[in-house]
Fold:
Amino acid sequence: MEKFTTLTGVAAPLPIINVDTDMIIPKQYLKTIKRTGLGTALFSEMRYNEDGSENPDFVLNKPAYRKAKIIVAGDNFGCGSSREHAPWALLDYGIRCVISTSFADIFYNNCFKNGILPIVVSPEQLELLMDDAQRGSNATITVDLESQTISGPDGGTIRFDIDPARKHVLLEGLDDIAGTLKHNAEIAGFEQRVHAARPWI
Structure:
C-alpha cells in the first residue's frame, strides 16, 4: 500500500449529503475482485448520461477537477452498504483524501485499509474548505498527515484529529497483512511456546 505523508492537489467540491456507496460505485460494477479499473466507474450514475456520454455538469467532468486528488463532501459520506469497492474506485481514480463532517463507520475503516485518508472536520471548517475547493484548479489544498493539518490556498490552516494507530498505518503504508507481518517474530515465538506446552496440537 502506498504511504500517505503529504498530499497537495486540487480538491473537488461535492456538497451533497448522504453520498452512499452505491452512488460512489453502483452495484453492477461489484462483480470484480480486482482493485484496479474501477476509477472509470466512480460516481458513474452522476458522471455519465444514459447514452454513456459525460455529464458536463458533474464536478469531476469539469476541466478544473479532472485530476482532483481530494474530495470535500457533505455530511455522512460513504453510508449505505459495506462494499469495499467504494474506496477501490476512489483510489483508482486518484482520490487519496476525502474530507467531510462525518463518515459511515464501515466506509471510514475501509479507507484506511486502502490508503485513503478520511478527515472529519466541523461544519464551519467544511464550509471554508468547500469555498476553497469551489475556486477550481487555481486553489490547491495541502494535507499533511504528520502534522495533522490542512492548508488552504490563502495560507489558512485547519487541524484535524486522527487515531494514532490509523495514522501510523497510513504513514507506513501498511495494509492489514503487512501490519501483521511486522509482528512476525512475536507470532513465531508464541507458536513455539504453544507447541512446547501442547505438542499434541
In short: The chain has one domain: 6-173. The chain has a mean pLDDT of 92. The radius of gyration is 19 Å.
